[in-house]
Amino acid sequence: RNYVRVTGTADVDGAAGAVLADELGLRRVYVLRSTDGIGEATATPFRRTARRLGIRLVGSGLWDPEAPSYERLADRVAAERPDGVYIGDGLFVNGGAIVKALRARLGSKVVLMAGDSFQPPSEVLGAAGRAAVGMYVTTTAVAHEGLSPEGRRFVRRFARRHRGVSLPSALYVIETVQAAEALLAAIARSDGTRASVNAELQ
Question: How far apart are CA 186 and CA 191, in angstroms?
Fold first, then answer.
């Protein structure tokens, strides 16, 4: 098996969350992730970058995706009086319930942030309801507004060709197209062997 990535990695996403927290003026942040351990890929770089930016990490905690309630966890977070909470995991580990519990206990003034595992926004709202309104979510995908002129032309051509089909912004659709183009170009330049294709992709 071979793997080539054309998007930013999870550590970049986590660091971006800390930069966002700094830009929002947050100075007391609590970090959460699930016991599944996947969220450590974003939580660790978030903590590391936050410290460098002078943000105080007032606590960290874990949640069990199978837990019936997160009220006690929300109480522990509230006790540290954070002005922001970074959720270093995704919707697939009951993230929506975490957002609901935090919002119910912390109110609307405490900023809730998460990485790109909290995508797409429609599913975040479906899982957390109004509690998700006002959340900040980072991603390494490029929004349509940030595309190059060629990328924006592709979006317009796609819309004309596939009327009634929306092309989601910042959800790795453009990156998927870019990956396919890179692979096809590498195959065309290769001698047809896997080793040659891999060499052309590097």
Answer: 10
Q: How far apart are CA 18 and CA 37, in angstroms?
A: 19
DSSP run (H or E) holding 123:
helix 121-128
Q: In what order do the strands lie in the sheet with 84-87?
A: 56-63, 28-34, 84-87, 111-114, 136-137
Token pair for residue 50? Answer: 């936050």
Q: Are 19 and 50 in contact (CB under 8 A)?
A: no
Quick one: pLDDT at residue 30?
A: 98
CB 60 within 8 A of CB 29: no
97-101 long-range contacts (CB < 8 A, ≥24 apart) are 97/70, 97/127, 97/128, 98/32, 98/63, 98/70, 98/73, 99/124, 99/127, 99/128, 99/131, 99/132, 99/135, 100/128, 100/129, 100/131, 101/69, 101/70, 101/71, 101/73, 101/74
The size of the chain, in residues, is 202
Residue bearing tokens 């596939």: 162
CA distance 105 to 107: 6
Q: What's this model's pTM, rounded to 2 decimal places?
A: 0.86
Find the farthest-apart pair of alpha carbons in the chain and give their distance in angstroms, rounded. Answer: 63
The parts of the chain modelled with pLDDT lower than 50 are: none
Which pLDDT value is given to residue 121?
Answer: 87
What lies within 8 Å, CB to CB, of 8 at 6+ separation is 140
Q: 100-121 pLDDT, tens per residue? A: 999 999 999 999 999 988 988 8
Amino acid identity, position 12: V
